[in-house]
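lol ok so funny story. i was supposed to be doing the assay writeup but got distracted and ended up predicting the structure for this chain instead. priorities right. anyway since i did it might as well share w the group, maybe its usefull for someone
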Amino acid sequence: MDTSTRSGPLHRHRLPRNPGHRSFYRTVTPPSCMPWWQVRKLYLEISYITLVHIMERFEDMIREFIKSNERAKRRPVNNHGINNFTEDEIKMITKNYKNPIGKGAFGEVYRGVLDDGSTVAVKKYICQNLKDGFAKEITVHCRIDHKNVVRLLGYCLEENALMIVTEYIPGGNLKDLLHGSDDHISLDARLGIAIECAEALTCMHSLHQPIIHGDIKPDNILLDENLGAKLSDFGISRLLCMDETAYTMHVAGSRGYMDPELFETGRVDPRNDVYSFGVVMVELVTRAKVNENGMSTGVTRNFTQAIEKGKTARAMFDTKIANVSNMKVLDNIGKLAAECLRRDIKKRPEMKDVTERLRALRKAYCQQDQEKTGRWSMKNVNRKGQSISASSNSTMYYKLNNLGMFSTWNAPRNFMRNAGPIVEQMQNLRVFTREEIRKITNGYSSDVIAKCSSCEVYKGTLEDNTLVAVNIETAVDEAHSESFTNSMLIYSIILHNNIIKLLGCYLEADVPILVYEFAANGNLQDILRGNYSFPLGIRLDIAVGCAEALAYLHSRSFAFVGANVTSANILLDDSLVPKVSGPLFICHSISSTSGDVYSFGILLLELITRKQGGYRNNSPQELRKAYMKKGHTMFDKEIAAKADILILERIQMVAMDCLKLDALARPKMAEVAERLQRLKNVESTGSELRELSMLRRLVASSISKARENTTPAT
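and the output, tada:
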C-alpha cells in the first residue's frame, strides 16, 4: 500500500506552543514519505508531550495562586473597588440628599442609588474639620473584607463634604429591633446575630495588623431582611501592631459598653471589644436597655453579679424566650457573657473562643429542637414584623446562609477569591450553579453520609444518575477558606486511581462547595471499628493503594502532602479500592513529606491490629516499646493465622521504619509502596489472586448491605 496517501488531513497534528499562550497548539503535517507506523508513533509522542505541557501550565498557575494566597496572609486585607466620589456625584446618588434614613452625633445618613441600580447608604459628617480622623476611618474600614461587616464602597473627601458610601442594609439596627419594637425574636435568631457579630470581630482581631472596633453596641449592628448582622461605624476603630501593647490618651466609646480597663488605663486591646460584645449578649438575652438617657440602668452589673455569686440570671431573661426547653442554652449564654465582662482583661476569652462556643450552643439548640419535632421551620421577623421562614432543615439553612448561599452581592467576589478564572479553564472540572447544587442534593434533604463540626457531606445524583458526594464546609473564617480553596485546586490537577476524584465545584459561596466521586463503602475507620470480615489480602491491597497514592503526591512532578493521613480520610469504593481524601498542601521541605510517612506508619498498625485512636497520641518510642512487649498478641486475631505471621511481621517492620524518631531516617513513600507491593506478591499469587478478587467482591457486598442501616460517620 502506498503510504504517501496517509499524509492527508487525517494526519494533521497539534504540537504544544508556549504554555502561557492562550492557544496551546499549532498545526503541522508530517512528511509524505513517513511510514504510517512512524506517523502513529509521532502522534502518540506529541499527544503525550501536549498533555504534559497542559498539566505543567495548570500546575504553574495553581502554584502561583496558592503562593499568592500565602503571601496575602502576611499582609493586611484590602477591600478592593473603593471609589473616590465627588460632591456632585454624591448629590446625584442621593438626589440632592432627598431620603434621610438616620441621624446621629456624627451627622446624617441618606439613601442613594448608584448607576448600576444598587442601593447605598451615604453618611455625611457634620464636623467637616476632622480630615485626619476621617481618613483614619477609611483606612481601617477598607482593610476589612468580611460578609458580616458593612461593605465600604467609596468616600468623598472634598472641602466641607466629608462622606462615606457603604452598602445599604434594609433592616435597621439591633437597638431598634430590641428596644423600639414588640416583634418576636426567637432564641435561634438572637444566637444567629451574636454568632455573625462574633465571626466579624474574630476576623478583625486575627488580621496581620489587628483591628479594634472600639464601639460595639446594638446601634452599630445593622440587620438585613433576614436578620443577618453586619458591623458598622469604624469611626473610633484602631489598628494595632501585632506584638506591642498600645495605650491611648484619647479614650472614646459609648457609656455602658466601653471596657472599664480602657476607660481607666487607656490600654487598647482586642479584649476591649470582647467586653463590649459581652454587654450586647446581655441585651440579646434580656432585651433590657443597658443605659437610658445617658445613665446606666445597672442591667450589666446585676447580671454579672448574679452569675458570679453562683446563681443564674434566669429572672432577667426575656420572658418571650425563657421557656423550659431554652433554659439550658440561655444559662450557657449568660455564663459566656459574664466571662466576657470580667474586670481583669487577662481573664476574658478571645473572640475566636467566644465564636466557637456560640457555634456549639447554636448547634446544640438546633439539634435539641429537631429531636423533638423532626423537621421545623426557622422563623424570624424583619423590621416590619413580617415572618421570614425557611421551610428546610433549620440547622442546614443556617449553615448555608452563613456560606453566602442565599445572597448574591458577594458572589462575584467569592468567585474571584475561590480561583474561579483558573477553574473555568479546566476542562475536567465542572463549575456548578447554586440551583444545580440544590437539585443534586434534592434541596439539601438527601442522605447525609458524613458529618463533623466543620462540614457535612451529602449523597447526591447528577443528571446522568451518577452518584456523587457533595461536601459543604461550614467553617467560614478567612484562613480556612484560603487553605480549602488551595486544596481544591490541587485535587483538580491530580489523577490517580487511589486518590478521590474531584468532579466539580460551586465557587460563589464563601467556601467552595465540592462535588466528588461517591465512595460507596464509606471510610476505613468505620470498617476497622465495625464487625465486618476483613481478610489480610484486602488489608494489604488497601495499604499498597494508599502508599502508591502518597508516593504519587510526593513525586517530583507534584510535590504535595496530605494534612491529615488517617483511616477516616481513606475512603473505599464499591470494590474496596482505597481513595485518599482530606486536605492537600504544597510540600515546602522534606520534613513535610516525612510527616505523611509517619502517619502512614500508624495507618499500617491500625490495619494489622484493628485498634484505632490510641496510637496517634503516642511517641515513636512508646509504640516501639509496646510492640517489643506484646509482640504478636497485638495482631488482629482474624488475620493472625500461623501461615500469615511472617507477612504481618514484615508489615510491622515497614510500620516501625515509618515511625522512626529521626524524620530524615524514615523511608520515602515510593520505597514503602515498593516494599508493600513485594509483600502483596508473596501473599497472593496465581489462583490466590482470583480467589482474593472473588473474596473482595463478597466482602464489599456484605459491608455495603450492613452500612445501609448505619448512621452517618461523625
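The two ends are 67 Å apart (CA to CA). The chain is about 40% helix and 15% strand.
back to the writeup now i swear
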